[in-house]
Design brief:
Length: 224
């Protein structure tokens, strides 16, 4: 049986690119850390790694340009540490973050977080943006057998919240995130990067918005 918008009670957010514009931080960190190891980071290949987990990114670059000296695990930790530093120094919330979290909290929604980012960066982001108190459950795909586009991290958040996917919605900024959320059974709202907004690949989401600030009760109704 399909749910109506009046039955919705759970919302799950992606983190990087949805709540915080951290993608440039990842790009800078990877260029710095991998560059010091002699790896040439090209823009085309960097776009491919943008949706990967940190472990997957490290393995990707090592397979293309193996280095000596540092273990893959240490290099991965170096990238994470650099990203954490940049978030603390420069991180700001994307447009509408505080407003949409308040919107759902006022309507008694359970609020979850499902991210491909390492678990250690979740409190860094939420504390930097001063939004940690809104979330009832936060999960990283580093604890799963596979990251997005696999649905595992969404399934885990739903289970921990005791929520049904038919009564839940997700906010994402990438195609891999849309696939993950929809594979878990959630209707999905996408906020694509501004430069890619008209790209038809994002039309697979149930709703596409330019910013989180555009979301409203009418948006909820439009999903059903």
């Amino acid at each position: 049986m399909n749910a109506s918008f009046t039955n919705l009670n759970t919302v799950i957010f992606d983190m990087d690119g949805t709540l915080i514009d951290s993608e440039p931080f990842w790009a800078l960190a990877e260029k710095s850390v991998f560059g010091e190891l002699g790896v040439e980071i090209t823009e085309d290949l960097a776009r491919k790694t943008a949706v990967m987990t940190t472990e997957e990114v490290t393995n990707f670059w090592f397979s293309r340009s193996p280095w000596k000296g540092k273990s893959l695990q240490q290099v991965e930790l170096d990238v994470i540490a650099k990203v954490s530093e940049l978030i603390c120094e420069l991180g700001t919330a994307l447009s509408g973050v505080q407003e949409i979290l308040s919107f759902f909290k006022q309507r008694d929604f359970s609020i979850g977080l499902a991210t491909n980012a390492p678990a250690c960066l979740i409190p860094t982001v939420l504390d930097t943006l001063d939004i940690a108190s809104y979330f009832d459950c936060v999960c990283s795909s580093e604890s799963e057998i596979a990251g997005k586009p696999a649905p595992h991290v969404y399934n885990t958040v739903l289970r921990k919240l005791g929520a049904s996917p038919v009564n839940s919605i997700a906010f994402e900024d990438s195609v891999s995130g849309i696939i993950a959320a929809q594979s878990a059974g959630l209707k999905t709202i996408v906020i694509p990067p501004f430069s890619d907004f008209v790209d038809p690949k994002f039309d697979r989401a149930e709703l596409k918005l330019k910013t989180l600030a555009e979301f409203s009760d009418k948006s909820l109704q439009a999903l059903f």
